[in-house]
Amino acid sequence: MKKLRLYLDTSVFNFALANDVPAEREVTLNLLEEVKKGKYDVFISEVVIREINRAPEAKARSLAALINELDLGDLHINNDSLGLAKKYIEAGIIPVKYEDDALHIAVASVNNLDAIVSWNFAHIVKLKTKREVIGINIINGYKEIEICSPPEVIE
Q: Rounded to the nearest 5°, which phi and psi values hold at 116?
């Protein structure tokens, strides 16, 4: 059976270090353990790296170390992903202020991944976003992408 191709946004790595939400941290660590075991083909993008670099220095170092432990594919922002992210924003799916959230989804979509995994329930993992992203993707020649939280992924 073909492995799922997953995109992990920055929130997943943040929750792996979040001591104030033990249940979510445990689920995240379980997901990352499955990633280490090679259960999925997993990717991040330069958006994740950029967001990590905005964190306070000690946290950024911890996040970078966590990412370096994993065998992750690195996806780049290109004109297609920029254009698709702009369409999500123009359609009112993602607020312009949160362009990076639109870029996470667009990079995963343009690269034909199966799902984006996120703890961001404000702009990414919510019914409106899931439904409207599918519509924009189909109109623009991209396949449907699943948007889910870590508990929906782990076995």
A: -110, 135
Integer Cα distance of 124 and 129 in angstroms = 6
Q: Are 148 and 117 in contact (CB under 8 A)?
A: yes
Look at the pTM and tell me if it is higher than 0.85: yes
Could you list the residue range(s) of the whole structural domain that residue 67 is in? 5-153
55: three-class secondary structure by DSSP: coil
Q: Summarize pLDDT for 31-56 with one digit per residue, the tens.
A: 999 999 999 999 999 999 999 999 99
Q: How many domains does the chain have?
A: 1
Give the 3-state secondary structure of residue 74.
strand
Taking the C-alpha atoms of residue 125 and residue 121, their distance in angstroms, rounded to an integer, is 5
Burial of 147 (0-12, 13-18, 19+ CB in 10 A): buried
46 within 8 A of 72, measured Cβ to Cβ: no
